[in-house]
Write a structure and sequence with these properties.
The complex is a heterodimer of chains A (328) and B (308). Helices cover 77% and strands 0% of the residues of chain A. Chain A has 328 residues and is an all-alpha fold. In chain B, helix 12 packs across helix 13. Chain B has a two-stranded antiparallel sheet. Classes of the chains: A mainly alpha (328), B mainly alpha (308).
């Protein structure tokens, strides 16, 4: 368990570094982000909320206090998840905008990533087991090529061919216009149909990574004596492949989960932009273009925390799957 | 303009040259050339470099010029890749865009490789506290998602010229490479030749740069190619999101205007297809080069592939 405690400690540190980067960025960059921010509000809006200038200054710099004082105030506010008001959605608090958009993204990336993992490891397993056969020679190169394509290019191709030309999927937004978000069948079915094409694009972009990882490790485990032993015992081929070779090959690819997930979060920004899908990625892009720095900062923190939580989840899964770590 | 050509300036200069006929071909180049994958990749990248070099000869002088009379034309002999909503010639934009993309990717990769090799190898060799600190930062950069971080950084920057982007990209992307190189250096640091150098009183700097690095040149080259194509992708992606130098010409900017003007939704495929395909072609070439270098430096991978 000491190993797990060390990982936890690292994640706390990593969140702290992410927050500090967020604090330092607007202060290191040339220019005055606060006035850029205020330019998006009317004088009447600023007058109606006299504390807002000071509020932005504690987030972005420009107060007359020392930087240490600002830093402590900043960390205190973030601890209460108080990122101030979003100027592009004025006067909605940033936390509310984040809470509204994040579920869409997490649904997309969560579902797509689990599917990509299952599909990718299965293909990698079969490709290694029957090397040089159909799956290895056709399916593997197809997914490798797909994962080498830029994610937004895959998204645009999917949008044009599968959405616009073939009419298989709706191509824009997260649900039909006229549907109000809520827990009812109309909304959920509409949202599900709209999520299909983005999910397909993420699967196309990220399955290749799992295929390659799994195939490489699996090729090594196939050469192990216990696999030969299992075959010599006359166990069914499928059982040897899944329970003996693949079971022992699964751990190293799992450790590739963290960097893949971080890059999937990045790819999400592009994919949501292509499909006008109102998740955290599109909101981040619009916040940055619209100089809505509090919203952009909050999204960066939240997305970093998502990646860290995914890492944590994988660590726990590792603990379950790898007895050596439990005893360490 | 050899700086456009990654195959010439690959930081692989150390291995001995070999005389073949009358032309001296460096040994490492021959090695990379013999591998089928990296040969195909090199040809792909080299042809894109040629395309970028001859851009002024084959395109109109001002690729961003508006011409509303020629707007939204499908590809034809007159406009090989069609025209944009504003009537600019997309072929010219792709040709000139290749210059910025290749130059930027190359420069960012060079800077990130220098940073990653220096920090990663020094950390691995010194061990102790320095290693802990550098390794910690490498891991932190790996859990903070790079694209959102770069999006936010570009948002705060109001000036986004080529060289600014090179520095920003290198500063964020070095960690990927540093992790690989640190791992490699860890496995080398207890070899006899390093211990011999150490016991004969060589300085840390000399051991890192003159003993360790030349022996991991294939890893460094692979890391360089890796960061090269990640930088290409990320830079085009940021421009695609509208976070580039919007006065310039590049693949990402053409893609941005295609997206913002909803050309795809109107059934125009050419404004996004050609710049996207140029990017995909270059990246695929680099990925193949990387796969080739991996096979060369890891003979086990190579024989496995050949036996199938």
């Amino acid at each position: 368990m000491r190993w797990f405690a060390r990982r936890l400690g690292f994640y706390v540190f990593a969140i702290w570094v992410a927050l500090t980067i967020n604090f330092l960025l607007p202060r290191l960059m040339p220019g005055d982000p606060v006035s850029g921010l205020l330019a998006h509000l009317t004088p009447a809006q600023i007058q109606a909320n006299p504390g807002i200038v000071h509020e932005f200054e504690t987030l972005l710099g420009g107060t007359h206090n020392s930087i240490w004082h600002d830093y402590v105030t900043y960390l205190g506010r973030i601890a209460h998840f108080d990122f101030g008001l979003s100027t592009s959605n004025y006067p909605t608090p940033v936390s509310e905008v984040v809470g509204r958009t994040l579920p869409y993204s997490m649904f997309l990336v969560g579902v797509a990533f689990i599917l990509a993992f299952v599909l990718g490891t299965a293909i990698g397993m079969v490709a290694a087991w029957r090397r040089g056969r159909a799956v290895d020679n056709v399916v593997v190169p197809v997914f490798m090529a797909l994962s080498a394509l830029p994610a937004f290019f895959t998204a645009l191709l999917g949008l044009y061919f599968l959405g616009l030309k073939a009419h298989w999927f709706p191509i824009q937004h997260a649900y039909d216009s006229g549907v109000t978000p809520g827990f009812n069948w109309t909304f959920l079915s509409s949202a599900f149909r709209h999520s299909q094409l983005p999910i397909l694009v993420i699967i196309a972009a990220f399955t290749g990574g799992w295929v390659l990882n799994m195939r490489t490790v699996m090729i090594n485990t196939i050469g192990e004596d216990y696999v030969l032993m299992a075959q010599a015992k006359g166990l069914p081929d499928r059982r040897v492949m899944t329970r003996y070779a693949a079971r022992n090959a699964i751990l190293p690819p799992l450790n590739g989960f963290a960097p893949l997930f971080a890059s999937a979060i990045g790819g999400l920004v592009f994919i949501e932009f292509v499909f006008s899908y109102p998740g955290a990625g599109l909101t981040l892009q619009q916040a940055v273009l619209g100089n809505d720095y509090p919203l952009a900062q909050a999204l960066l923190v939240v997305l970093s925390i998502c990646v860290i939580l995914a890492n944590l989840l994988m660590d726990i899964l590792n603990l379950v799957l790898d007895p050596r770590l439990r005893s360490a | 303009m050899s700086q456009f050509d990654p195959t010439i300036d690959l930081p692989l200069a150390a291995p001995p040259a070999r005389v073949r006929g009358r032309v001296r071909v460096p040994g490492w180049l021959l090695l990379i050339w013999r591998n089928r994958k990296s040969r195909v990749g090199m040809v792909m990248v080299a042809s894109m470099v040629m395309f970028a070099l001859i851009a002024p000869l084959i395109s109109v002088a001002h690729p961003n010029e508006f011409n509303l009379l020629a707007a939204r034309q499908a590809p034809s002999w007159h406009h090989l890749f069609g025209t944009t909503d504003q009537g600019s010639d997309i072929f010219s934009q792709v040709a000139f865009g290749a210059r910025r993309s290749l130059l930027l990717g190359f420069a960012a990769a060079l800077l990130a490789t220098g940073l990653a090799a220096t920090l990663g190898v020094t950390a691995a060799y010194s061990g102790g506290f320095a290693d802990d600190v550098i390794n910690f930062f490498i891991n932190v950069f790996l859990v903070i998602p790079a694209i959102p971080l770069l999006v936010v950084i570009s948002g705060f920057m109001k000036e986004r010229g080529t060289w600014t982007m090179v520095i920003v990209l290198a500063a964020v992307l070095w960690a990927f490479e540093a992790r690989i190189l640190r791992g490699q250096a860890l496995s080398l640091k207890n070899r006899d030749f390093v211990l011999a150098a150490k016991s004969s009183g060589e300085s840390t700097r000399r051991i890192v740069f003159a003993e360790l690095m030349p022996n991991m040149i294939s890893r460094i080259a692979a890391g360089f190619v890796l960061v090269f194509y990640i930088a290409l992708l990320v830079d085009a992606g940021l421009e695609f999101l509208g976070l580039g130098d919007m006065t310039g010409t590049s693949w990402g900017i053409t893609l941005y205007w295609a997206q913002v003007n909803s050309t795809v939704l109107q059934g125009e495929w050419w404004p996004f297809f050609f710049p996207g395909a140029a990017l995909a072609f270059t990246v695929l070439g680099l990925v193949l080069m990387l796969a080739g270098i991996d096979e060369i430096s890891n003979p086990r991978l190579r024989t496995e592939r050949e036996s199938t």
